Amino acid sequence: MKGKVKNMNKTYLTVAQIFIGIYTVLISLASFVVLFSLTIVGGVPIQGLVNLYLFGLIGLYVVIFIRFGLAKDKPRMKNEIIIWSVLLLMSSNLLAGIFGIIAALSTDDKKENLGHKTIESQLKSLDNLYDKGLISQEEYKTRRMRILDGL
């Protein structure tokens, strides 16, 4: 029997995305101010390096934002999210990194509980149909197995 990989907590992934977005906007504004200031001063030899660093950081945050969004429906991306979160921590985006790690390490319990209730209600409905004689014993067993295979 294969182990089912549980979904990461979508709420924490969304919160991490919000902090990534806020930080990206702040970096963009800061880079505009820095680049404008360097242009006014003129002839600064490190201007190219500053451009490369700031636009690289903005690009990296956009990629991380997109990957966090994709991970909401792909539980197998858990390790990738942890790596991106550690990178966020190292780039001083602490809140996004912390929420990313929490999201990767916690599960989306609401969805799992709803799934169990749905399966439970399906089994009760099936029992009800069988008790009323609306389905045969063979149909009952087949459908019951189909529902239980969905676990």
What does this structure look like?
The structure is a single chain. This protein has 151 residues and is mainly alpha-helical. The chain has two domains: 10-107, no CATH class; 110-149. The chain has six helices and no strands. The model has no long low-confidence stretch (mean pLDDT 84).
Query: Structural class per helix/strand content?
Result: mainly alpha
Number of domains: 2
Low-confidence stretches: none
Radius of gyration: 25 Å
Shape annotation: rod-shaped
- Estimated share of beta-strand residues: under 5%
Tally the beta strands: 0
Please report the number of helical segments: 6
What is the residue-averaged pLDDT?
84
Strand-and-helix sequence, N→C? HHHHHH
The percent of residues in helical segments reads: over 70%
The rounded distance between the terminal residues' Cα atoms is 11 Å
Major beta sheet summary? none
What would you say about this model in short?
It is built from 6 helices and no strands. The chain is mostly helical and 151 residues long.
Strand-helix topology:
Blueprint: H1 10-41, H2 47-71, H3 78-90, H4 94-105, H5 109-131, H6 137-149
Helix pairs in contact: 1-2, 1-4, 2-3, 3-4, 5-6
Task: Give a quick set of tags describing it.
151 residues, mainly alpha, 2 domains, 6 helices, 78% helix, rod-shaped
